[in-house]
Design a protein that fits this description.
Blueprint lengths: L13 E6 L3 E6 L4 E5 L4 H5 L2 H5 L1 E4 L4 E4 L4 E4 H6 L7 H8 L1
Antiparallel strand pairs: 1-2, 2-3, 4-5, 5-6
Length: 96
């Protein structure tokens, strides 16, 4: 069985974040913009506009943190197209 390993040698940093009703976009230091559906991140999907906009860059631009939503997303997750790994049970506890 073959496996594919993707190694990111030079990871760009996040320069700016934009969240809309359906998309999370990150402008990167290498000139790219990565956009993913916020449906990949249930806490963002269920957050208010105010909560979604209350984010800051962490780890020198290697990630994004939403304090009110208790959500962290790394640049690696965005580049590799990895949605949230949070379990449904954990997410349901957070909703309460």
């Amino acid at each position: 069985m073959n496996s594919l390993t993707i190694e990111l040698l030079e990871i760009p940093t996040i320069q700016q974040v934009t969240v809309t009703d359906d998309t999370l976009s990150a402008d990167l230091s290498d000139g790219r913009t990565i956009s993913v559906p916020i449906a990949w991140y249930p806490r963002l999907l269920h957050g208010s506009i105010e909560e979604r906009n209350d984010c800051r860059l962490i780890a020198a631009g290697k990630g994004i943190h939403w304090n009110q939503l208790d959500e962290d997303i790394s640049i690696k997750n965005l580049i590799l197209g990895q949605p949230s790994g949070e379990s449904q049970k954990s997410f349901q506890r957070w909703l309460i």
